[in-house]
């Protein structure tokens, strides 16, 4: 994006600059004038119209500046953009956090200098300024260091490869830490809850990674299968009085079936179209759950979902007469964290099973066919692969793991309602997969910790989580569309044959 | 072995094939030459079922395959190195070859690997390298080798010489000959490089505007004045 023209030769094309920026500003002004400029407000005795022309002017000016920055970047002038965007970004961030630095009065005055006065929009402006600064910096560095896009790709790929190699050591370390976590002194109830949440998302990420990372099918409705799994378990448990472990396979099966039913008609679609249709399916399932009151209790949700037992031993303090419990069986004092620790291990084992499954299937013909399909569908067909069936297996197996995850969610919460299965969930899981690098197993772990763990630990960040998500996704898409740590390890190596082994050239058929 | 009669193929309203008749006999190398846009690739793809023939009949080994889906046609013992090579760029050479063996019995895998490595020794050296990082010539070799991994009786090749240096073209054509003679694979070769293709092939067809203009043995077509004028201008050098 540094532009074909180099800064030494062509002067800034001022005419183009003003024309484009002016046109953009005009469009923004035209749109904002009526939409933003007038607002109806409830006043005693009816509606009143208030005007907000100041905001319209600010928006128009920002549009002008932003478009001008884009034009400058395109013409190969990152320096002025950097010189403007960087101070502006810093200034805006300082203004945002002014209550932390200055006294309340000063902060109140300072905050008035924020462009719009509405926190979300101001943050958006800040992030946009930051994006400009980063892009200008990258363009400048690229112009200076002659590092081409391709070289950068290679460099990132090397980092990806290194991380993947490190993962061989790091993986067992993280796993070891995950196993002893409940017994560490810092592991209180809150930490354990967060850990359960993070591992749940790791498992979902790994499940979706089969669909998106391996098979390359952009699925924006993964939450549908999560919901099917959760409701399958809850309903089976309530109607037939079955326990978690009996229902788990059924829930997975139901989700996989849902995957086949949904996948069958739509998997011939490609890329964006598939994404839109799956998004629609996600919403459809949620709306069905919401409206099929006799079956799902609609918005009231299902409660009293049974908790998982330890080989039939429940985790209760005072069981009904004659029922053995976990603590009484092992002669322990009753502790409410026992159940949490147990849940943690359940999801950990489920997640590991997902991971092992993926690692294993990647080496089998069907797994390799998924990857081949992602790379080149036409080539796959000419090798005798049936694309539809192959995609369908990926889609339904991914759905099955989503269903397992959903069952766990239901048993952990004890209560589910359609509200837990909104599009945001799909988006978060997809963000984990994309951020981690599609197809990278360890990347999913890091991304889940980053996107789920940190915001949970630092509650103050929570408010801006979705905004940060959006910004992160935009940056990644601009910078490295295949994901941060995407690097594909070969699935097989032949043992070296001795060099003088006989060649079987015209082998008989 | 392959018999095409009266095939018409459309892309929307564009009629790319306007009634093509063509025969490939067992054990032959048959080449199809013609200018860019003549419909050569379309014919090859039509044989493989995508796009489908709107009219006409395609018979492979006595079985009509018109209208079958590609993956079923491929399973009948016909294999294709499509236009543009289409190897899997992020998979290694070895994995690409394994993908080629999708439809064959896994017990032959090692034999088949040795067989194609025997034809293209360079691929053995590069077996852990990713397909996308191979040179053009190596990619073409990989595409052919991958197509051979399914143990085809008929091999369809679409412009294997495209974009390769003359020395590599000779090398590839020599291997095609070897595949045909030593391994008894019938070859249907689509080429723009008419000179080399006609010298290699037993018989040739000339295509223009979706129709077959002329057919004859390789030597006959090479000697034909019209063809020399139309297609051999670039290939007149000795050898
Ligand atoms: N996918 C396609 N969609 C529409 N038209 C196509 C497509 N592929 C090829 N054509 C048209 O069909 C004709 C034959 O193309 P092609 O078979 O690729 O020729 P050749 O391989 O001989 O160069 C050309 O006019 C080309 O523009
Ligand atoms: Mg062609």
- Ligand roster: adenosine-5'-diphosphate, magnesium ion
How many domains comprise the coordinates of chain A?
2
What is the CATH first-level class name of the largest domain in chain B? Answer: Alpha Beta
Largest sheet of chain A: 2 strands, antiparallel
Q: What's the helical proportion of residues of chain A?
A: 55-70%
The number of helical segments of chain A is 20
- Number of structurally distinct domains of chain B: 2
At CATH's second level, what is the architecture of the largest domain in chain B?
3-Layer(aba) Sandwich
Taken from the alpha-carbon principal axes, the silhouette of chain A is globular
Report the portion of residues of chain A in β strands: under 5%
Secondary structure blueprint with pairings:
The complex is a heterodimer of chains A (509) and B (239).
Chain A: H1 14-35, E1 38-43, E2 46-51, H2 53-75, H3 78-96, H4 98-101, H5 104-111, H6 119-145, H7 149-180, H8 189-214, H9 223-240, H10 244-266, H11 271-291, H12 293-296, E3 302-303, H13 326-329, H14 337-362, H15 365-375, H16 377-382, H17 387-413, E4 415-416, H18 423-436, H19 441-457, H20 465-479
Antiparallel strand pairs in A: 1-2, 3-4
Chain B: E1 2-11, E2 14-24, E3 29-34, H1 40-47, E4 55-60, E5 63-64, H2 70-74, E6 78-81, H3 93-100, H4 109-119, H5 121-125, H6 136-148, E7 154-158, H7 166-182, E8 186-191, H8 194-200, E9 203-208, E10 211-217, H9 218-223, H10 225-231
The complex binds adenosine-5'-diphosphate (ADP) and magnesium ion (MG).
Magnesium ion binds at residues 40-41, 83, 159 of chain B.
